[in-house]
TrEMBL record:
The gene is fcl. The active site is at 138 (proton donor/acceptor). NADP(+) binds at residues 14-20, 107-110, 142, 165-168, 181. HAMAP family: GDP_fucose_synth (MF_00956). This is GDP-L-fucose synthase.
Length: 313
């Protein structure tokens, strides 16, 4: 790291979340320090956001604050998903421009790709068709965030980059069944099944959809790599490189957790997209690849879950 990089003022918006906390850990491992608010700021509020930027004066911003959830939360709270995310990202991106932030990294998601786009999704498939309905409000807000970064770069000469991660998992994930993603939801159910000695654990859907899972510390490593090595308005995918079925992930977690019961797949519950694999060759071509295999990532996640179960809601 160059000497002047040590002096960078880095603000990780969403530092308490799964991605934000992993980025903070990664920055600290590499000798960077972060600046953060003394108390929680509501980034949906423009004045609070502007005041925060006046106080922190960040050089770099990682925009990992968002309303995030699985299929149930997306279908139950569509208005909150589009409102909260549109407000948070508009305020943070605009404040970054006004306060002359040198570089911003915006966290998008693989759900911005059209449901019928060819698999694996390449960056050029962005905006080539209709979205999956179950998380359309969330995806539309993420698409607006990407276009906002690109527009600010074009009009104001900013350096705001947008990355599209695969499904993430790891420490500080949400394991609450009302708003968790598929992997933490399955882990939680299997753990409860083991704890209560249940003969059967219910998994939503058919178990056949395929998902690509990236350990969150790998994602954080990619974020830091891209802050140092990527300066384009074009979106860039960050994936693990391969995918598994929901059934396969359930059996892997069952093995890691040591659960001996069976699964019951509830086909009355929605599956979501059949497949969501990213083509991450743009990223691998510039020199980054993941290092945590799925089995290892699941072991680390379950270990973290057991150590932190007392504070998990
Ligand atoms: N999780 C995934 O699988 C995944 C996959 C692809 C992309 N991403 C993207 O990665 C980013 C982070 O996701 P995550 O999984 O880390 O989510 P998370 O664990 O739910 O963390 C979200 C963070 O945003 C903060 N936040 C939410 N509303 C806020 C508000 N109004 N004002 C200030 N802070 C607010 C939360 O703080 P409080 O706890 O204080 O509310 C928390 O720190 C999101 O942009 C998401 O789209 C995630």
């Amino acid at each position: 790291m160059e000497a002047n990089q040590r002096d960078l003022r880095i603000y990780v918006a969403g530092h308490t979340g799964m991605v934000g906390s992993a980025i903070c850990r990664k920055l600290s491992q590499h000798g960077y320090s972060t600046v953060r608010p003394n108390s929680r700021v509501d980034l949906r509020d423009q004045k609070q956001t502007m005041d925060l930027f006046s106080q922190l004066k960040p050089d770099w911003v990682f925009l990992a604050a968002a309303k995030v959830g699985g299929i149930y939360a997306n279908m139950t709270y569509p208005a909150e998903f589009i409102y909260d995310n549109s407000m948070i990202q508009s305020n943070v991106i605009h404040a970054s421009y006004v306060h002359k932030v040198k570089k911003l990294l915006f966290l998008g998601s693989s759900c911005i790709y059209p449901k019928d786009a060819p698999q694996p999704f390449k960056e050029e498939h962005f905006l080539c068709g209709y979205l999956e309905k179950s998380n359309e409000p969330y995806a539309v807000s993420k698409i607006a965030g990407i276009i906002m970064c690109q527009s600010y770069n074009r009009q104001y000469g900013t350096n705001f980059i947008s990355i599209m991660p695969a499904n993430l998992y790891g420490p500080e994930d949400r394991f609450n069944l009302a708003n968790s993603h598929v992997l933490p939801a399955i882990l939680r159910k299997i753990h409860e099944g083991k704890r209560t000695g249940a003969e059967e654990v219910e998994i939503w859907g058919t178990g056949t959809p395929r998902r690509e899972f990236l350990y969150v510390d790998d994602l954080a490593d990619a974020c830091l790599f891209l802050m140092n090595n990527y300066n384009s308005s074009e979106i860039i995918n960050v994936g693990a490189g391969d995918d598994v079925t929901i059934k396969e992930i359930a059996y892997l977690i069952k093995d890691v957790a040591g659960y001996e019961g069976q699964f019951k797949f509830n086909v009355d519950m929605p599956d979501g997209m059949a497949r969501k694999l990213l083509d991450s060759s743009r990223l691998t071509n510039i020199g980054w690849k993941p290092s945590v295999p799925l089995r290892k990532g699941l072991e680390l996640t379950y270990k973290w879950f057991l150590e932190n179960e007392w504070r998990i809601k």
